[in-house]
Amino acid sequence: MIRLQKQAQEIGIVLTDEQINQFQIYYDMLIETNKVMNLTAITELKEVISKHFIDSLLLIKAYPDIAQLKLKVLDLGTGAGFPGIPLKIAFPSLQITLMDSLNKRVKFLQSVINELELCDIEAVHGRAEEAARNAVYREQFDLCVSRAVANLATLSEYTLPFVKIGGMCIPYKAAGVEEEVDTAKKAIQVLGGKLTTVKKVALPETEIERSFILIDKVKKTPKTYPRKPGTASKEPIH
Q: Is the separation of the CB atoms in 72 and 95 below 8 Å?
């Protein structure tokens, strides 16, 4: 875990011994559970550190306020808990909701939360299109993050309805996103967002570059969105 400590320092994060220990337990649980359930294709420790843990924490380079503010954060389509759990370990003041459509993944996340004794974090089973129509979640979050693979126009319809006015949506994307961003501009506007900037950040000790799309929520999302399950991916707004 020296690698984790070193790479975290490279991006401006100092992790305590306790936090390093939490990451170690998380890694062990991830690998153990991965034997019986498909959580990640990346299993080697140094790869998990770099491509899951540090990649999740790279958000600090695009949005430095994450370290200081007591934000209410939604990690949509969290899967095995990325980026939500690494963000919670590194920045304990965040209030995080991990949401995933697969219940067995949610059960795994809950076991991690319990084992690490994390507070102000919950794992919720739900589909974006349905949960975003629930008043408990709709326009309730300061920040919505997602490492989900949907294209940006579709992802905007999943994420922006959860964000309150004045909040932000920051999807994690790969390097070449210019065309995807261009295609998504109409959807972002229709859903109440405003594209602020695209920040590109290098992943330490790799050739990988991560793009963060910073979208401000400037007005309410129309009640017609999100549309029924499956529609956003088949017919993105454009």
A: yes
